Amino acid sequence: MVTLLDGVKHPYEDGEAIILNNIEGMASKEDPKKSINGTIHKVKVINSKSFLIGNTTGYEKYVRNGTAKNIKTPVIVKFPTFKELLATAQEKLPI
């Protein structure tokens, strides 16, 4: 769980993606040369001062500091063509 300093509120909503940086501690248990810094996580909001970022058991203990920045992830939306819509509509129209 990520908890912010007193008097600070986060702007995140459930499902948003954030990238973590400037965190002291939290080196990878498998590769100490790597850390949680620069990793992307989906947010699960607890309240205006706290949120979850998923499973962090693969990292050492948090020491202090850190920033979280909202990142935009692309969403692909696919629509049928106008021709496909017309064909579907004609099939559903009563005769």
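[next item in queue]
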Amino acid sequence: MVIAGNQPIVIDKARFGEKLRQWRIDGTAVVGPAWHHFDLFDLLTKPAWHGAPTWETGADMAARTKDLTVLTDDNMATEFRWIRAYPNGRPIAANY
């Protein structure tokens, strides 16, 4: 998954950690009290996954992938059904 934007993504680490501490599934905390003293953002972003970073900047990603072949899904136009998605007419995309 990639989270991207035209401006740098700024994560509120305190809010991120608090939301994880509040997260419940069927009333049971996903992140139990034993983990509450850890910096949960660092726990999720610092460990490497199979030797690769789990969190990287756009510049890092561009450098890492600069020699890879670009693949596109250029057949999406034929797969997308405008009538079903926009029964009242196709929207006009601004600035495109």
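[queue empty]
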